[in-house]
Structures are given as structure tokens and as C-alpha cells.
Amino acid sequence: MKIQVVQNVLRANDAIAAASREHFNKLGLPVLNFISAPGSGKTALLERTLECLKAKRCAVLVGDLATSRDAERLGRHCENVVQINTGKGCHLDAAQIEAGLKNIPVDQLDWLFIENVGNMVCPVDFDLGEHGKVALISTVEGEDKPVKYPTLFQKATCVVLTKVDLAAVSGFDRDQFYRELRQVNSDVPVIEVSSRTGENFDAWLAWLEQFRLAVRQP
Ligand SMILES: Nc1nc2c(ncn2[C@@H]2O[C@H](COP(=O)(O)OP(=O)(O)O)[C@@H](O)[C@H]2O)c(=O)[nH]1
Ligand SMILES: [Mg+2]
Prior knowledge:
CATH topology: Rossmann fold
CATH architecture: 3-Layer(aba) Sandwich
Bound molecules: guanosine-5'-diphosphate, magnesium ion
Distance between the termini: 41 Å
Structural class: alpha/beta
Shape: globular
Largest sheet: 7 strands, parallel
Radius of gyration: 17 Å
Helix content: 40-55%
Number of helices: 10
Order of helices and strands: HEHEHEHEHEHHEHHEH
């Protein structure tokens, strides 16, 4: 009975997500869903990305349990930022995205980014209508996360390894990370960045542009 309830919730979510995706496709608007543990650097990555994409029209929907702190940070770099407070909810759902979209000029955008609630498990099951999931993992949280949380890394369109400026000091074992990541996903692209120093942002921006063009010209 309990499983039935969960299935119904997911089915209702997927119907809304499918309608949102159709809308995004009609607009040629690329949408990415950023998922990671709290503190991996989702907001920092988006802050620097928005700054680099100043020439493009961007919007961010950002989920958090309680505060509007991430929206305040992102709002310094972009005028279209909507904070979605989920209360005790550990993930964003498609209905919350649909409601959040009412506050932004969705037909005048080049990019829509979604920062999910910090959590490596629950957000993965909830389709938001996005075209891709960006899984973040930082060099300070352990090389073993891909094998401990395989679903996120299996469903990721791109993996961003953040805080590479801290890799040496944290003793991050790159070989173990790649070996174990490849056990769960043999071909997902990985981009190593530092949102603090800007290291390798050229590669990240190039990946974004390639993704944007693929959505616009399927
Ligand atoms: N040194 C360093 N710190 C970072 C980097 N990215 C994020 N941080 C810091 O890590 C903390 C958590 O980052 P935040 O963007 O809030 O993570 P989120 O919870 O995933 O959104 C903050 O203190 C950031 O300044 C990075 O590339 N290098
Ligand atoms: Mg954040």
C-alpha cells in the first residue's frame, strides 16, 4: 500500500514534469538541475557561472528548506532568481518548479538553472522537466561518493568535481575517484573546477554552450 502511494506521487510528478519539458522544448530553453550534498558548491558554481554568462539571459530556481540565503547570493549576479522553500521537503518537485516559473519571464531566457535542495538521494527520483542533471561532488567530501550514491552518478548528464583548489590539502585521491566513478558510469563527462579561483571554468562554460546548442537544435 505504501509503495502504491509513492508510485502515485511519482506518476503525478512525472506528468507535470513532462508538460514543463514540452514547454521548455517549444521555447528552445535549456534547463539543468544541479544536485549534490549540502556544501558541495552548487551556489558557488552558479554564482561564478552567472557572472561568466552575463551576456546571456539566465534564471535560477533555487530550493532550500528554510532560508533565502542562496537566492540572495545568486541575486547579486542575475535578476531572475526565485527561492523555493520546501519546509521539511528534501527535494524539489515538478509542481514547485511549475509554480516558480510564474515569477520569471520564461519565454525571454537563454538558460534556466535549478539548484536542488542539498541531498544526494531524494532529488534524483523527482523529474523537474529538466534536460540534464549536473551532479556535483567536492574534493573534500570523499572519493567514495559515486559508489555510495550510485543513482545520482548514473543519472548525471555531467559530473562537476568542485573545490579542486582544495584537492591537495584534503588528500583527495583522484585515481580512486575516477576508478570508482567509472564503475557506476563509464562515460559521463567530468569537469574539474574551482569556483573560488575560476580554474577550468573555460571547460565548464564550453560544456554548457555545447549543451545549450544541443537543446536548441535537437
Ligand atoms: N575553496 C573553495 N571553496 C568553495 C568552492 N566552491 C564552494 N566553496 C565554499 O564551500 C562552501 C559551500 O558552498 P555552497 O556554494 O554554499 O554549497 P551548496 O550548499 O552546494 O550550494 C562555501 O563556504 C563556499 O564558499 C571552491 O571551488 N573552492
Ligand atoms: Mg546552495
